[in-house]
TrEMBL record:
Transmembrane segments: none annotated. The keyword Repeat does not apply. Residues 40-67 form a coiled coil. The active site is at H199 (tele-phosphohistidine intermediate), C515 (proton donor). Its EC number is 2.7.3.9. One of its GO terms (cellular component) is cytoplasm. This is Phosphoenolpyruvate-protein phosphotransferase.
Length: 586
């Protein structure tokens, strides 16, 4: 049965562009549970692992229910009942007790116990020949699959077999899932969960995949093969559009592609303002395969190489040689242009399978063991990364960037570890960068921004990470669609922290750049340059847009406007002053 025509759903548009294609609904129900014995001494830990997975499942169901409340009344009620039933099954039910009992009695892993208990409950419901209970079998299985998914966190999405040009629809996709999407095969994607600045969104932008996250009611009534339009600009998903509506989307898509082609002509033009100030436009890289795109748009260098890709979608950790080889390839491809490689920023929403053992389930992952905190707690991880960076630096221009720095002590500690690694490599007679790479820090914690003048003497450069800076300043989860409207780059507190950091860097005469998503949005270019920033790093696709904007602006006027803006306390007034300035230039 086809879904209703022209069903228009709203979400958060996170990646520009329009994709049209057949739907592929990610079927999370095809998981096969592994089965293995658990030694007596580890049984309680296995029960605990199950309890953690169940906890997570309850949080997921609660979140889905909150989302469902935004649907029209009847749909909200129907889905609400269903999710209440799922929640009940996950709380002290026969299912939960049965799984724990099986782990202890049969001495098996939690996945096998869940699978066995689901089969047994489904069988007993079927035996009762009751229509109501028969209908509940599907719910029991769905809850079981959710538990399995949470237990088998490392399940990779297999996108490679999908029909070319399809649109992936899913409840949720992790950044690691998204990294597996090949933009030559997949036209775009949409999910029910996820916010505008989470790493799934950033990954979508870097792969130039049109995407809409946080889409209400996405998976209701849509089937594989239905025609779907993902409009990443308007933040809309249209299921089975009528011919007229489809024509409209096709026309808009053609216009966007034409505009993109036209922007290519900017490639050879210098990135200078109308009054002659030159600005460095760098590329952010999530994955090495974006390198060609960065070179194609004429990036001056790589302003942020997120090295998390090295750790994603695998069961083991990359060793020094493997990391060196990949980094060297990137550094050599950039042909002498700077490559700013950031040490591992795993944690928060970005968990890599191979590092699962390093984390317990934190109460608040964004404030937990993330980024440099993990690297300093597990110095072997950091030593391996630094060694690889030092070795790759021998083949070009590499800078090292540290994420989530909050204190001078952390920078000092990294410098000590780096000195040890340098000595060890020299003893081994390995060729390393000479002079040693510059060592800079991300300013993305409000406390770091406020102490930027104290941090500057210990750093060779600053890179302002506005994504996290906004999240932590305003206490808004960057990946949560429910508070996406409160995530505000123009909040005066955010702007003051950017200004304070920039001025501290200028006083200390160290370079300062912005590499958060703000840097790649031409709406903010005049303001950021007006605040004194002269280096921006962004997804390669955005670089021509920002270059076009800065080539059209007068820096003296932009500086004057930035000053007026910094005198404001009202967010609406700030937005109006900025948009008026931009409109006048258009
Ligand atoms: C940032 O926080 O702005 C940033 C660039 O880092 P990430 O998005 O990887 O956290
Ligand atoms: Mg960050």
């Amino acid at each position: 049965m086809k879904a209703a025509a022209d069903r228009l759903l709203r979400g958060v548009g996170v990646s520009s562009g329009i994709a049209i294609g057949p739907a592929h609904v990610v079927d999370a129900s095809a998981l096969l549970a592994p089965e293995y014995a658990i030694p007596e001494a580890e049984l309680e830990a296995e029960v605990q692992r199950f309890a953690t997975a169940a906890d997570k499942a309850r949080r997921q169901v609660r979140k889905l229910k909150t989302k469902a409340s935004g649907l029209p009344d009847s749909a909200a009620e129907e889905i609400g009942f269903l999710l209440d039933a799922h929640f009940a099954m996950l709380s002290g039910s026969r299912l939960m007790r049965g799984v724990e009992k099986r782990i202890r009695q049969d001495k098996v892993n939690a996945e096998a116990a869940v699978q066995a208990e689901i089969t047994s409950i489904a069988q007993s419901f079927a035996d009762m020949e009751d229509a109501y209970l028969a209908a509940r079998i599907a719910d029991v299985r769905e809850v079981g699959q959710r538990l399995l998914r949470n237990l088998m966190q490392h399940k990779y999405q297999a996108f490679s077999f999908l029909p070319e040009g399809c649109i992936v629809l899913a409840e949720d996709l992790s950044p690691a899932d998204t990294a597996l999407m090949d933009p030559r095969r997949i036209a775009g994607f949409a999910t029910m969960l996820g916010g505008p600045e989470g790493h799934t969104a950033i990954m979508a932008r870097s792969l130039s995949l049109p995407a809409v996250l946080g889409t209400l009611g996405l998976l209701q009534g849509v089937q594989n093969g239905d025609t779907v339009v993902v409009d990443g600009i308007a933040g809309q998903v249209c299921v089975n559009p009528s011919p007229d509506v489809l024509d409209g989307y096709r026309r808009r898509r053609a216009e966007l592609l034409a505009e993109r082609a036209q922007l290519k002509s900017l490639r050879k033009l210098p990135a200078i303002t109308r009054d002659g100030t030159s600005v460095t436009l760098n590329a952010n890289l999530e994955l090495p395969r974006e390198l060609d795109g960065a070179i194609e748009v004429g990036a001056s260098g790589v302003g942020l190489l997120r090295t998390e890709f090295l750790f994603m979608n695998r069961e083991d950790l990359p060793d020094e040689d493997e990391q060196t080889e990949i980094l060297t390839r990137i550094v050599t491809s950039m042909d002498g242009k700077p490559v700013t490689a950031r040490t591992l920023d795993i944690g928060g929403e970005k968990i890599a399978t191979a590092l699962r053992g390093y984390f317990s389930e934190p109460t608040n992952p964004a404030l937990g063991l993330r980024a440099i905190r993990l690297s300093l707690k597990e110095p072997k991880l950091l030593e391996t990364q630094l060694a690889a960076m030092l070795r790759a630096g021998a083949h070009g221009n590499l800078r090292i960037l540290l994420p989530m720095i909050s204190s001078v002590a952390e920078v000092r500690r990294v410098r000590e570890i780096m000195a040890t690694v340098v000595r060890r490599l020299r003893r081994r007679g390995v060729k390393i960068a000479h002079p040693l790479p510059k060592l800079g820090i991300m300013i993305e914690i409000p406390g770091a921004a406020l102490s930027a003048d104290g941090l500057a003497p210990f750093c060779d450069f600053f890179a302002i990470g506005t994504n996290d800076l906004i999240q932590y300043t305003l206490a808004i989860d960057r990946g949560d669609e429910q508070v996406a409207d409160l995530y505000d780059p123009l909040h005066p507190a955010v702007l003051r922290l950017v200004q304070f950091t920039t001025e501290a860097a200028l006083r200390a005469r160290i370079p300062v750049s912005i590499c958060g998503e703000m840097a790649g949005d031409p709406r903010y270019t005049a303001l950021l340059l007006g605040l004194g920033i002269r280096e921006l790093s962004m997804a390669p696709n955005n670089l021509p847009l920002v270059k076009r904007r800065l080539r059209g602006l007068d820096l003296i006027e932009a500086t004057r406007r930035a000053r007026t803006i910094m005198d404001q306390t009202d967010r609406g007034r700030i937005a109006a002053l900025l948009d008026d300035f931009n409109d006048a230039a258009a």
